[in-house]
Write a structure and sequence with these properties.
The complex is a heterodimer of chains A (295) and B (296).
Chain A (H helix, E strand, L loop, with lengths): L7 H33 L2 H5 L13 H8 L1 H33 L6 H9 L8 H10 L17 H14 L2 H9 L4 H12 L1 H17 L2 H6 L8 H18 L6 H39 L5
Helix pairs in contact in A: 1-13, 3-13, 4-7, 4-10, 4-12, 8-9, 10-13, 12-13
Chain B lengths: L1 H28 L13 H4 L6 H8 L3 H19 L1 H11 L4 H12 L6 H11 L6 H8 L13 H27 L3 H9 L4 H25 L7 H7 L5 H4 L2 H11 L3 H30 L5
Classes of the chains: A mainly alpha (295), B mainly alpha (296).
Chain lengths: 295, 296
């Protein structure tokens, strides 16, 4: 685009526009930034409101306190397991099915498309699902965190659209003429061309499992099996409302440790996603763009 | 030959179909409990039919008005606050000339989307805590008194909605941003030659191009009018703010899982989904008539 001389109104617009952009930037960044600086500052300065922009009196008492909290590490271990196994299971179910749906000659293709699409709008809801899981004796098992969410309509359709739009028919036909089976086409032609969608799906599923809270709340009883979000909630929520009201009877040092701990736990729980985030961000965006609900 | 191919495709398809049938269609069978007085020892089929008794009980209960209005207010407020801002952000960034600034703003505004609900609510709890929270510390500096935000019935909705905006604004702008970048550059060039200001270009080029996307998303969003997400409300709920924070989903949870009144809670959940379905279908019909944009 050629640069033209801007009119006065356009110059005003550009200034306001930059202000809006910075407003969004600061608004989204500051809460995260504050958690980071608060986690490494002296908790007493944080609680008395002296830390705003930069860490003060670098202090790792919060992280030390966290090291002593056994349930956090158990939760961490559980979440990693649920995420790894759950993501693998999701991929094994979703990717092949999405490919099958993208093949235009599949008999009853319309029926299967509807079969999945409908689930975006109707379902049994929380209690019937709970009763089903209970009747299947899945409550409080490892597998309840993996199996029930095996396929989701949204991701399946996203993936199917990718296959329909990005895998050239000629390539598949060439393999067919050479006598390759559908299995061969899928593994040798389709998968190698689909790294972008595989990455997107992997990340969608993994972040979903990592952050998932509700199924653990509903279906997990033993604290030994709690995933990190549930541990976090018990640690943070249960304490905050009450210690706002009374916080006597514990040693000052302990109290400060517990105060710092809150920020540190948030950091540690979000760290894997936030560290990976800059690398995977472009795939996520791609994922949103491939998907349109129209089927 | 054809048969063999299809057999192989079905091998790919069947596991997903089974999973969906069991865990998504399976619970739909449980919806019959809404019309039954469910006794676990009698089973789904053995429990006696009671017609619409469970529904009537909900409509007539003294919680009905409260739960319904809480849900709709929270949902409508959340929609009004969170719907336009991503569009503003996308249009705004579209006119930022520096690619680096654009990328930075995008990357940073997307980040909160990946923070889990539990963490967001924890952050709210910490930032708005009465005795040590950042917000109350600032209030004190300004000479204002400290407020117990997390237990406040007036603050609950604002906290819920604006933390939601914080989480979603960047991520929801992606779709608009990609529609904007798909606009043919020559349109803008021609408009510039004709002396159109940026505001005019937004008004007559960008917004009309975004309209189908906006309408589609609005339809989908309207369908959710009665389903305020469970997780965040549940996590933010406490005995102090429950007069405004009890919504249909949390009420269903506490009736079903908490007090084990299964028939009653299934009926409430079913009422919610039926209303939502009717909403989507209606809005979709209306929009089809008015603007020829529909989800289907």
């Amino acid at each position: 685009m050629k640069r033209r001389k801007r009119s006065a109104s356009d110059r005003v617009f550009m200034i306001v526009n930059h202000m809006i952009a910075f407003f969004f930037l600061i608004g989204c960044l500051y809460p995260l930034w504050f958690v980071v600086i608060a986690s490494v500052s002296d908790p007493s300065l944080v609680t008395s409101g002296q830390v705003f922009l930069w860490p003060k009196k670098i202090n790792l008492i919060g992280y030390q306190t966290m090291l002593e909290q056994k349930e956090i590490w158990i939760g961490y271990k559980n979440t990693i397991l649920y995420t790894a196994v759950g993501t693998a299971y999701n991929l094994c179910l979703t990717i092949p099915a999405a490919y099958a749906l993208s093949v235009r000659t599949l008999p009853f293709r319309r029926f299967f498309n509807m079969f999945f699409l409908v689930t975006m709008f109707i379902g049994g809801g929380m209690i019937p699902t709970y009763l089903l899981i209970k009747n299947l004796r899945l409550i409080n098992t490892f597998w309840v965190m993996v199996i029930p969410g095996g396929v989701g309509a949204w991701n399946l359709i996203l993936c199917r659209n990718f296959f329909t739009e990005n895998i050239p028919l000629e390539l598949k036909d060439a393999t067919r003429i050479d006598g390759g089976s559908e299995f061969a086409i899928f593994f040798r032609v389709v998968l190698p061309l689909s790294k972008a969608i595989l990455a997107v799906m992997l990340l969608f599923f993994a972040v979903g499992h990592w952050n998932s809270f509700r199924s653990a709340l509903l279906y997990i009883r033993d604290t030994d099996r709690y995933p990190l979000p549930l541990v976090l909630r018990n640690l943070l929520m249960k304490s905050t409302v009450t210690d706002d009201l009374s916080s006597s009877g514990i040693s000052m040092n302990r109290l400060l440790g517990m105060q710092g701990l809150k920020y540190c736990v948030i950091i540690v729980a979000s760290l894997p996603v936030l560290v990976l985030y800059p690398f995977i961000q472009k795939y996520f965006v791609k994922g949103v763009m491939v998907g349109s609900v129209k089927g | 030959m054809q048969l063999k191919r299809h057999w192989q495709l079905y091998v790919f398809l069947i596991p997903a179909v089974v999973s969906m049938a069991v865990f998504h269609y399976g619970p739909m069978y449980g919806l019959i409990l809404a019309f039954k007085d469910y006794k676990p020892y009698l089973g789904y089929l053995g429990s006696p039919w009671v017609g619409f008794k469970n529904f009537m009980r909900f409509f007539q209960s003294n919680r009905f008005t409260q739960v319904m209005s809480n849900t709709m207010i929270l949902s409508a407020y959340s929609m009004i606050a969170s719907f336009p801002l991503p569009i503003v952000l996308a249009v705004c960034l579209n006119y930022v000339p520096s690619v680096r600034l654009k990328k930075t703003v995008q990357n940073i505004t997307y980040a909160p989307h990946f923070v889990s609900t539990v963490v967001v609510v924890s952050m709210l709890n910490i930032f708005f805590a009465r005795d040590y929270g950042l917000v109350n510390n600032i209030r004190e500096m300004l000479g204002l008194e400290r407020i117990l935000y997390m237990g406040s019935t007036t603050a609950f909705r604002h906290l819920y909605v604006w933390s939601g905006v914080w989480q979603g604004v960047g991520w929801s702008s992606v779709i608009y941003f990609s529609s904007l970048s798909a606009i043919d550059e020559t349109l803008h060039d021609v408009a510039q030659v004709d002396g159109a200001s940026i505001i005019q270009r937004i008004r007559y080029i960008d917004l009309p191009m975004l309209k189908p996307t906006i309408v589609t998303l609005l339809i989908l969003r309207t369908g959710d009018l009665l389903s305020v997400g469970f997780d965040k409300v549940y996590l933010m709920q406490n005995s102090l703010n429950s007069p405004v924070s009890e919504v249909i989903s949390t009420y269903t949870y506490s009736m079903g899982i908490g007090s084990q009144q299964y028939g009653y809670s299934v009926a409430i959940g079913m009422f919610e989904s039926v209303v939502n379905l009717i909403m989507v279908l209606t809005v979709n019909q209306i929009s089809k008539k008015l603007s020829e944009t529909s989800v289907w």
